[in-house]
Amino acid sequence: MLVKSSMKILIIQPKMGIGDMVIYLPYIHAISKKYKKSVSVLVKDSSKAKGLLAEDNHIDEIIHLEKDMDGMKGVFKLSKELKKRSFDKIFIFNSSLRYNLIARLAGIKSMYQYPLFRSKDNIVLSAKVFTEDITNEVVSTEPNLIIKKRDNNLDRSFKHICLGISASGPTKRWNINNYIKLAEKINKRIKCKFYIAGGKNDIDLINKFKNSNVGKDSFSFEKMSIKETLQYISNCNLYIGNDTGWAHISVALKVKALTIFCDSPVAAYGSYSSKMVTVEPEGVVKGTTTHDTLGKDKIPFDKIYNQSIEMLN
Hints:
2 domains, Rossmann fold, 35% helix
């Protein structure tokens, strides 16, 4: 239970991605619960924190790390902005000396931070160890996106599948023709409704799916805000798709996710939630897919299909 108090807490989470934001949620929540106080978070706009955390009572304020506040040139501007808010405590999920200096210039007396100058880390393990040292409690890595869930009047005679066709780069994206073939094959066995998780930059892929035989009655997210998509994803039976923000949103909404890792670090981004099942390229030792694996053409179709049917049943 959160209580009213004058203490003001800031958490700095400077990573860019939606998935990153989701992965940090257990640790943000744990700090909020430790002090029984909602917290402010400093994040980049690309994390889509405002949409993701709009209904989360652990969050007091979302402060965007604007471009002119980034880098060494932004030190004084950011510290001035934070000083206005008179924070009492700051928790920095980053090893940069820059944020250490900003906290000092902002007059924040109680500071907790990752070890300075650490060059490499596992996003989940580092955050977990850091937070457990603060709370003196075991912190689960399972994220929880807090929303006021509605039914959306979905027809429960269908299985509802969110297809994550988008990705942050072409090497991380399973071919759209594979998704069309997969949806057609699943639909022959189980009556399904498909929700295409993609944005404006994915319009060509979205249209290709919609123009297929299986995609005629599909629903796509390209005109929706992140906040609007949460209701639809939360009511799905399964996510199938690339390692992208949509996969991480799904597991945080307690939706099972069959996540395809073609060219990103599965050890960090694919092992933190019991809701996530991962598929890696053929010929790669399980758990070793990472940047430069370049395996999008080696993803076993039959394995994706069989695992999809198993997870839907």
